[in-house]
Amino acid sequence: MGDHFQRIVDVEAAGDEAGALAERMVGWLVAEGVITRETSGEGVYSQTADEGYVPGPRWYRAVEGSAETGWQPGPVAVMTGRDYYVGGQGQDEADSAVCPRCDTKTVIIDYPEQFEADDEVWRPFREAIAAWKETGGGSTACAACGAVVPVTEWRFGSGFDLGALAFDFWGWPPLGTAFLAEFSRRLGHRTEEQGGKF
Ligand SMILES: [Zn+2]
User: Fold this and answer.
1) In which domain of life is the source organism classified (predicted)?
2) What is the pLDDT of residue 45?
3) Which of 24, 74, 93, 139 lies 20 to 30 Å from 114, alpha-carbon distance?
4) How far away, in angstroms, is 134 Cα from ligand 1 center?
5) How far away, in angstroms, is 141 Cα from ligand 1 center?
6) CA quadruple 111, 117, 119, 120: dihedral positive or negative?
7) CA atoms of 97 and 104, how far apart (whole Å)
8) How much distance in Å is there from the Cα of 16 to the middle of ligand 1?
9) 88-117 pLDDT, tens per residue?
């Protein structure tokens, strides 16, 4: 199964509520038997966490279908603090950003001609994201309509999300749709899913 992860990012939690939310979600997952309170760093390569919660006796409740015989999922790492999260193999830029005011798409990585971000296009986003990480606020002006839009409102291409709370399931079978819906409902926030390999 290798070192792959499935990640749930809470894209609405504020930085100062992430810690309490994380604790509440861990409490729920432990009560459900999906994880235990025991932690381990084995097979955990999360960007800001080096250990996670060991799977519980009913870990299969979180996955699609019935438990696969012999599957041993890895720990579930919980990350708090404002950050950007990338799926896939983890490049540091989004490939595109759509303005929520005028719906214009700004292309950042011009596939298939380019495989790297246009630094001039990406720079204002990178700077706004850095400001947001630092202070909780950061905005970028839309080149099409001129609106100054908070970075948390731009719709970045898939696999690039901003959030203050994220959960990495290391080496788990595909998480179930009912579980993901319940997860989001309990957070009380919109979530995005990512997948990738270390
Ligand atoms: Zn715009």
Assistant:
1) Bacteria
2) 93
3) 139
4) 25
5) 8
6) positive
7) 8
8) 29
9) 766 789 999 999 999 999 999 998 898 889
Q: What is the CATH number of domain 4-83+160-197?
A: 3.30.310
Span from the CA of 148 to the centroid of ligand 1 (angstroms): 8
Q: Note the pLDDT of residue 143.
A: 94
Structure tokens at 116: 């790297």
Determine the distance separating the centroid of ligand 1 and the alpha carbon of 149, expressed in angstroms: 8
Give the three-class secondary structure for 127: helix
Burial of 148 (0-12, 13-18, 19+ CB in 10 A): exposed
- Domain map of the chain by residue range? 4-83+160-197, 96-156
Q: Going by DSSP bridges, is the β-strand pair 160-170/76-86 parallel, antiparallel, or unpaired?
A: antiparallel
Q: 104 CA distance to ligand 1 centroid (A)?
A: 6
Rounded Cα distance between 181 and 171, Å, is 20
